[in-house]
Design brief:
This protein is α/β, with parallel strands linked by helices. Helix content is about 40%, strand content about 20%.
């Protein structure tokens, strides 16, 4: 069915006033209709993610309903007995997040499947925890993480608390494709589902158990050691859990950015609520200038990622995800050794696009490093593998360069709550040495060399974007670059054919002279191609100079395909 025919069908079938207004607004624009209907919003390992609005390529109650009916069919088909498994559901502060969560629960209820629903918005790791804690067959989290306000999303979790792997995603996709978006979706009212016991609100004891599990990862310290923190949840879900866990470790001097404290799906004060970006932290930095904290913490809307800034001279510097990751690895290792709690065969897990600085630090402490594909589910997969070998306690830390960290096995997704706790403990440790975290990072560079990392992001919007991204990757495969910025490519790796036993992935790696490296991959959640540049130097100046040449050449190459 062509886009105009699909549009006409939606005009006939849709009764929701907001969606009807959206359909009416695009009636005179063939371009708008094509963008809204040229494809069905793709369901993958990251679930659904897209712009809000009417259409098959949009996040709305119908695309959510269709996906959930597919999940219900999958659960019923794979039930081990006559009673299908249950589903845990969580949602964040985004526009329509609660509506989509209740829509999902209502569809599941109409299929005889019980949902456990958090009574208020909560962080993503709390959903990962609840899925395992309650023994659910799956989990659903309505969130678009750090995307701009016009987006929402729908993450699916397996019974292990990990985002679903590709085989499960493929099976669910097959089920979804067999569901007519209007005629095959079963539903009942959320209130009726509650009355029938098919929707159960998650008890406060579950959230308490989650926070208890987070607290188990704390480092023994004097609870009265002073630390002043400015914290912003960026209008998201982090306020309750982050402040509760910080108070539990004795960090009570917390200054919350009040204008960003409350949930706001429009993200009025930070249109792009990504703690990687300085723009999102400007309100927090302004408060820092008034109260002079030891550090600034910022969690993204679903509180699975955390960014930090610390004072350096007259300004506040943002530490990268890689820098915080290696700082935490070093801190956890030295703290565990000091406390006598380091396992005999410790394992740290990170991704192929995370800093190479992990390797010398891990070697220093006798820690095995396992590298996985991008996506925290793969880190969760290593945890599961270790547990199957009765080695769950050997896992000490996992992180990815995109500001996601996990200590402990209570969750199988990145956890900004446990990360915020450990970052504050780390800041308190270095404060006792008259250093802040920026200075601590410089010490690590002095010891191990300067490892510089940069991620270039290129957006390919619209119906033609996917084709352009495919053309770019095909070109790099057909004619791999022999050199980049006059640096010879020593090794070319195509992860699509499998590398080091990892699953096949649309990733290309170019290992250059002198341990420099470039990795290219399309994003799994956004219409973007990401280019990761890794350089190493004896000094920051040297590493950044090499990076500038590599980044310039890769930018020129990619832009030919835009």
């Amino acid at each position: 069915m062509d886009c105009r025919s699909l549009y006409d069908l939606w005009c006939e079938k849709v009764s929701d006033a907001e969606l009807r207004a959206d359909l009416e607004a695009m009636s005179e624009s063939d371009e708008a209709i094509e963008d809204a209907f040229y494809r069905t919003l793709e369901f993958g390992t990251a679930g659904l993610r897209g712009v809000l609005g009417a259409g098959t390529n949009r996040m709305n109650i119908h695309t959510v309903g269709q996906a959930t009916q597919g999940i219900a069919n999958y659960i019923k088909h794979n039930a081990q007995d006559s009673k299908p498994g249950t589903v845990a559901i969580c949602y964040d502060s985004r526009i329509n997040s609660e509506l989509f969560a209740h829509t999902a629960a209502s569809v599941l209820a109409a299929n005889g499947i019980t949902s456990y629903v958090y009574p208020r918005l909560e962080p993503t790791p709390a959903l990962s925890f609840a899925t395992r804690f309650l023994g659910c067959a799956m989990g659903i989290n309505v969130t678009a993480s750090h995307n701009p306000s016009q987006y929402n999303g729908y993450k699916a979790y397996g019974p292990d608390g990990c985002q679903i792997a590709s085989d499960m995603a493929d099976a669910i996709t097959e089920c979804i494709e067999q569901v007519d978006i209007f005629d095959d979706v079963q539903s009942m009212s959320f209130e009726q589902a509650q009355e029938r016991g098919l929707v159960v609100m998650i008890d406060e004891d579950v959230l308490d158990a989650y926070l208890d599990s987070v607290y188990e990862q704390h480092v023994p310290q004097k609870a009265d050691d002073p630390l002043r923190v400015v914290y912003t949840p960026l209008h998201g879900t982090g306020l309750e859990c982050v402040t509760r866990i910080l108070q539990r470790i004795g960090v009570t001097d917390i200054h919350v950015v009040e204008e960003q404290a409350q949930p706001d799906g429009n993200f009025t004060t930070c249109p792009y609520p990504n703690p990687e970006n300085r723009d999102a932290l400007e309100r927090g930095i302004a408060l820092c200038e008034k109260v002079h904290p030891d550090l600034l913490l910022a969690t993204d809307p679903d509180a699975d990622r955390v960014g930090i800034a610390v004072k350096d001279g007259d300004d506040y510097k943002l530490l990268s995800g890689n820098e915080v990751g290696v700082l935490l690895l070093d801190f956890i290792c030295r703290s565990r050794i000091a406390a006598g709690t380091m396992p005999e065969n410790p394992v740290a897990v990170t991704t192929i696009v995370s800093s190479s600085m992990v390797d010398p630090i891990a070697e220093h402490y006798g820690v095995e490093v396992r590298r996985v594909l991008t996506g925290f589910k793969y880190i969760g997969g290593v945890i599961a593998e270790l547990e199957s070998e009765n080695r769950g306690d050997d896992f000490i830390f996992g992180f990815e360069e995109s500001y996601g960290y996990l200590a402990g096995t209570h969750a199988r997704d990145k956890d900004a709550v446990v990360a915020s706790m450990l970052i504050c403990q780390m800041a308190r440790y270095y404060r006792a040495l008259d250093k802040n975290l920026y200075q601590a990072m410089q010490d690590l560079y002095d010891e191990y060399g300067f490892y510089h990392n940069r991620t270039l992001s290129f957006t390919f919007e619209g119906s033609d974007g996917a084709r352009k991204m495919t053309a770019l990757m095909d070109a790099l495969r057909t004619s791999p670059l022999p050199s980049i910025a006059n640096l010879y490519v020593q090794t070319y790796k195509d992860y699509k054919v499998g590398v080091n036993g990892l699953p096949a992935a649309n990733v290309l790696e170019f290992d250059l002279d002198n341990d420099h490296k470039v990795i290219v991959r399309p994003s799994g959640t956004e219409p973007k191609v990401k280019v990761y540049v890794f350089t190493v130097g004896d000094t920051e100046r040297q590493a950044r100079s090499i990076d500038a040449h590599i980044a310039g050449e890769m930018t020129t190459y990619v832009k030919k395909f835009e």
